[in-house]
UniProtKB/TrEMBL annotation, chain A:
One of its GO terms (cellular component) is cytosol. Signal peptide: none annotated. One of its GO terms (biological process) is Kdo2-lipid A biosynthetic process. Residues 2-77 form the Carrier domain. The keyword Phosphoprotein applies. Keywords: Cytoplasm, Fatty acid biosynthesis, Fatty acid metabolism, Lipid biosynthesis, Lipid metabolism, Phosphopantetheine, Phosphoprotein. The modification O-(pantetheine 4'-phosphoryl)serine is found at S37. It is found in: Cytoplasm. Carrier of the growing fatty acid chain in fatty acid biosynthesis. It comes from Salinarimonas soli. InterPro entries: ACP (IPR003231), ACP-like_sf (IPR036736), PP-bd_ACP (IPR009081), Ppantetheine_attach_site (IPR006162). This is Acyl carrier protein. The gene is acpP.
TrEMBL record, chain B:
GO terms for biological process: fatty acid biosynthetic process. The gene is fabG. It holds the Pfam family adh_short_C2. This is 3-oxoacyl-[acyl-carrier-protein] reductase. Pathway: Lipid metabolism; fatty acid biosynthesis. Transmembrane segments: none annotated. Belongs to the short-chain dehydrogenases/reductases (SDR) family. It catalyses: a (3R)-hydroxyacyl-[ACP] + NADP(+) = a 3-oxoacyl-[ACP] + NADPH + H(+). It comes from Salinarimonas soli. One of its GO terms (molecular function) is NAD binding. Catalyzes the NADPH-dependent reduction of beta-ketoacyl-ACP substrates to beta-hydroxyacyl-ACP products, the first reductive step in the elongation cycle of fatty acid biosynthesis. SMART domains: PKS_KR (SM00822). InterPro entries: 3oxo_ACP_reduc, KR_dom, NAD(P)-bd_dom_sf, Sc_DH/Rdtase_CS, SDR, SDR_fam.
Amino acid sequence: MSDIAERVKKIVIEHLGVESEKVTENANFIDDLGADSLDTVELVMAFEEEFNVEIPDDAAETIVTVGDAIKFLEKNAA
Amino acid sequence: MFDLTGRKALVTGATGGIGGAIARALHAQGATVALSGTRRAALDELAAALGERVHVLEANLGDKDSVEGLMPAAEAALGGLDVLVNNAGITRDNLFLRMKDEEWDSVMSVNLTAAFRLSRAAVKGMMRRRHGRIVNIGSVVGSTGNPGQGNYAAAKAGLIGLSKALAAEVASRGITVNVVAPGFIESPMTDALNEKQREAILGNVPAGRLGSGAEIAAAVVYLASNEAAYVTGTTLHVNGGMAMF
């Protein structure tokens, strides 16, 4: 697992208070991890802070699973 | 009770009668306050009177760029923001049939859109800190209407809807959003009324007198406090009984 994937999962576990086994790349934040829409906004804010990137709204809307976040950040994080 | 020591507050329209009173009251409870307004000299004067724990941030809330620059400036000056008081407001009264688009737009932009933009910017940091207080200063006419104030009444009523929607969204993050709705308050504007006008107004106020800025400020202090953590999405009317809801 990449360093980015590791950090993304850590943020998701901490923020949503879910067990680490549940945080797979296919896990959907809302359907599988119990996030509400505000949680997803907060997760994006947390990713922005952790990886020092700006995630525009249209990109944020496409980040619905843990894997989506990892992919986006692998491509865009410095 | 209502101790605000260590809290960081931004008050817009801080040079006005009510805004100044709010800034003084928050400061007296221990908060560090950022004073925002358009009149630099008046802001500096209030800051000097308050002494320590004060920052001055000039901003024109009718200007989009100025509004968008205000929150980063406030958070930088204060080191975060706990309390946002959207108090700035203007009037451009006219009979509805004669109201110009410009009169409508300018009142909407300062009284409602600026509150939207500042609240949107403030909530980000408040969510992170799991604590925040937004107090929007409305008006009794937002609930009763008033001839000649279609724009002002609409903007003030708009603040109530905005506050309820935002309150529902962020309540789980320890953030409350409320409105304080003043009735007739002593100000340079009401000082200019003649005896007859004054009597006509007071005839509708069961308390038989105008309110003071300090009485509005006290309501703001309460809603900004830890004690009001369970109060959100509400409108606190401070009007001597002139309208009861």
